[in-house]
Amino acid sequence: MNSLQEAEEKGQKRRKANFMWRFRRNKLAVVGLGIVVLCLFIAMFANFLAPTSYDVGNLTEARQPPSWSHIFGTDAVGRDYLSRMLYATRTSIVVALGVQVITLTIGISLGTLGGYLGGWVDQIVVRIIEIATGIPALLIAMFIMGLLGHSMWNVIFALGISGWVVETRITRGQFLAFKEREFVIAAQAIGANRFRVAFRHIFPNIIPILAVLLAFQVPAVIFNEAGLSFLGLGIDEPVPSLGKMISTSLGYVRTYWHMGLFPSLMIAIITMGFTFVGDGLRDALDPTMNR
Amino acid sequence: MIRYSLGRLLGLLGSVLIISLILFIAVRWLPGTPWNEAEIPLQGAAKENMMRKYGLDQPVHVQYAKYLWNLLHLDLGNSFIYKTETVWETIARGWPATAKIGSVTLIIAFSIGIPVGIIAALRQNSLLDYTVTFLATTGITVPNFAVAVWLVMFVSVKMDLLPTQGWGTWQHMVLPVVAYSLAPTSLIARFTRVSMLEAMRSDYIRTARAKGLAEPVVILRHVFKNALIPIITLVGPLIPNLMTGSIFIENTFGIPGIGRHFVTSIFDRDYPVIMGVFMLVAVLFGLTYFISDILYTWADPRVRLTDRKT
Predict the structure, then answer these.
(1) Which CA distances in Å does A240 have to A54, A94, A225, A244, B174?
(2) Considering only CA atoms, which of B66, B124, B121 is closest in space to residue B231?
(3) If you average pLDDT over residues B104-115, what whole number do you get?
(4) Is any Cβ of chain A less than 8 angstroms from the Cβ of B157?
(5) What is the SS3 assignment for A33?
(6) For residue B247, what is the nearest residue in chain A, using CA coordinates?
(7) CB–CB of B274/B141 below 8 Å?
(8) What are the phi and psi torsion angles at B163 (to 5°)?
(9) CA B24 vs CA B29, B265, B292: distances in Å
(10) How confident is the model over A125-150, as a mean pLDDT?
(11) A169: which chain B residues are within 8 Å (Cβ-Cβ)?
(12) If you ran DSSP here, which 8-state letter would residue A243 be given?
């Protein structure tokens, strides 16, 4: 191993340690990370954690307030509310991650095409972005849900196909900025082909920014999924969704407080956890940015 | 300037056309008709008559041409569901409530968000600053329908101060506006704070202080005016969003606004209403983006409007 490589590795290690230190110094970000890890854990192991399945109800136990046998009470048809909420968390996380796969795929492809190739390709990409910004993504998602019918996969599709504008814009902007940098010109000069330059040289530099974006987009998607389900345009029974649980609870708000309080708190905690992580990531990656 | 404006407006027209085309094709290609055939089956001649009445029997390009021709006359067609009502009338039915909620929310968001952002920036890294930042992050992140549920639970049910649902008196507006304004207020506060901090660190502020200007003058005339520039870019899209986007709030509180009509029209597959709302929103959005760009040049004379290079 030559000394250059060693120095490079050392530098990388130092940057990493620096990043970790800055992230950890932000208490909210650490709390957020805890929440995120917990959510992912719940999403993965909901079927082991939940006392009952999400669709098993006992009508004789309908609408019970929290008790020792049902910590969070039961819903209108006697299903254990805690179990419903654990599975609903899984729904939120699965939808959020599924949507990210679609939006990042579209966003990175379009953004790279426009930002790196430039010229008429970029003009088209800019035009597509402009058209897509013309209408709020949530309205488009609602429209698609109305056409396709209600299911979790349709929600993922609808939110994914309508929500890639930010991803595209940021990827494109980053490519535009990096395209002119010395290391890129050097790589081109020694004859690396365009694909290699784009994905081996430029793209790794964009990953941190996309990671920050991801941390902010996940809560936004969770919000939107809950919103769609809240309006009845999202996920259908018996699959639980926090938004649906909240909207159902409105009918019982005078008598059964637990039905509204728990899912609304849950969704607040999840979305805040991801946002705090995003804030922390952003500040740790870019210390010049002020919080 | 005039050339630029014309170019932008033409671009907007193009966008609206493409959006209308995509929507039109999406609507027509999908199976099913706007009539509830599961409950009221339509057969043979009856169905044909219905299709003919609404022009659905013609080829898609003819239908689209007809739609565009009507659009040119600002005719958005008739609702499929409320058969005696034009789309304009449906929109007009919902508009007052939505506009009322939206404009009050907007006023509150600005009159609270901007001062709070300024104060937080002036006391950077104080306890107050941290509290504001934390609350603002919470306000942006927590879904407004969750906040609405909490408000209903505590203010309406527990304390019995305000009605849980409905529309008509000022009491009915309090909770929706509070729930709805939380996010934009927080957003404006956070944004104001950051751009104030940014402006305060620049050289011209040091100059202003060095030449002995009074602190309030420095803050308001020099810092704030420059901090305003990024705020404008945020506010532009916020306005149509607030005017159209109170969907969750309207559904939670049972307010007869556009958002609720839109959701109903989606459930009913009321194509003309859906299309009409989309067209209106697209134009509204395009115009506010355009106006906020114009305002931008006014606030920051260094910015020149040339051909779009986003």
Answers:
(1) 7, 12, 12, 7, 31
(2) B121
(3) 90
(4) yes
(5) helix
(6) A231
(7) no
(8) -65, 150
(9) 8, 15, 30
(10) 87
(11) 310
(12) H
Distance from CA of A140 to the nearest CA of B (A): 9
* pLDDT of B30: 67
**Does residue B240 register a pLDDT over 90?**
no
User: What is the residue-averaged pLDDT of chain A?
Assistant: 86
Report the pLDDT averaged over residues B278-297. 83
Distances (CA, A) of A271 to A39, B33, B148: 10, 38, 16
Q: Averaged over A87-102, what is the pLDDT?
A: 93
**For chain A, what percent of residues have pLDDT higher than 70?**
97
Q: How near does any CA of chain A get to the CA of B84, in Å?
A: 24
Are B263 and A231 within 8 A, CB to CB? Answer: yes
The span from the CA of A7 to the CA of A17, in Å, is 15
Residues of chain A positioned with their CB less than 8 A from the CB of B155: none
A125: amino acid identity, one letter: V
Residue type for position A177: A
Quote the pTM value. Answer: 0.87
The upper half-sphere exposure of residue B235, i.e. CA atoms within 13 Å in the direction of its Cβ, equals 23
